[in-house]
């Protein structure tokens, strides 16, 4: 079993322009690559877990997602960051599936397909859905990014950070399980 940091995509790694799928809307957030390298250097593997209901809503297709996402993976690879896999949910909230966060299905897929030790793994995301998915899947902890004034808390499932760089520092501050 391997320790992972499972990453939401939109609003965590890239600017969330509202169902981002067009290359002209593509923008990696500041500090993403250095933060991910810090986590990898500390022994974490990296994978992406992302809701993409724009597919289910008919706003864009799988090929749009794949083209957009391939650009992100190529840019991260060029910056020395390796992403082991991407797990996506194309469903809308009305579908009531097990893979759309806050359901834990995407994280369970990471466990089953990658050997992720969820009890030793973290999730970083920008919404309460992400945090709830981590809790339901049995992750060691989660960090919600995009918080203007992060709260300090002793509960590792309630950590907050301004951005991915701060989130990485908070995770690394907890040390190995």
Using brief descriptors, characterize the structure shown.
177 residues; alpha/beta
Account of the protein in words:
35% of the residues lie in helices and 15% in strands. The mean pLDDT is 94. Helix 1 runs parallel beside helix 6 (164-174). It is α/β, with parallel strands linked by helices and 177 residues long. It has a 6-stranded parallel sheet with strand order 3-2-1-4-5-6, sandwiched between helices. The radius of gyration is 15 Å and the shape is globular. Strand 1 (4-7), helix 1 and strand 2 form a beta-alpha-beta unit.
Unreliable runs: none
- How many distinct beta strands? 6
Question: How do the strands of the widest beta sheet line up side by side?
Answer: 3-2-1-4-5-6
Helix content: 25-40%
Largest sheet features: 6 strands, parallel
SSE order: EHEHHEHEHEEH
> Given the structure, what is the number of helices?
6
Please report the distance between the alpha carbons of the first and last residues.
13 Å
How would you describe the shape?
Answer: globular
Structural class: alpha/beta
Radius of gyration: 15 Å
């Amino acid at each position: 079993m391997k320790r992972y940091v499972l990453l939401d995509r939109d609003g965590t790694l890239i600017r969330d322009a509202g169902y981002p799928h067009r290359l002209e809307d593509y923008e990696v957030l500041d500090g993403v690559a250095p933060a991910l390298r810090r986590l990898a250097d500390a022994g974490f593997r990296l994978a992406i877990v992302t809701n993409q209901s724009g597919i289910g809503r008919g706003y864009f297709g799988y090929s749009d997602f794949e083209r957009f996402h391939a650009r992100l993976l190529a840019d991260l690879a060029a910056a020395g960051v390796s992403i082991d896999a991407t797990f996506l949910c194309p469903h809308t909230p009305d579908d009531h599936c097990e893979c759309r966060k806050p359901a834990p299905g995407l994280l369970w897929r990471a466990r089953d397909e990658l050997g992720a030790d969820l009890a030793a793994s973290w999730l970083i995301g920008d919404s309460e859905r992400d945090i709830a998915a981590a809790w339901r899947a049995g992750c060691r902890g989660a960090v919600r990014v995009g918080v203007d004034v992060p709260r300090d808390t002793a509960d590792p499932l309630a950590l907050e950070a301004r951005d991915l760089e701060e989130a990485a520092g908070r995770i690394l501050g907890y040390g190995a399980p």
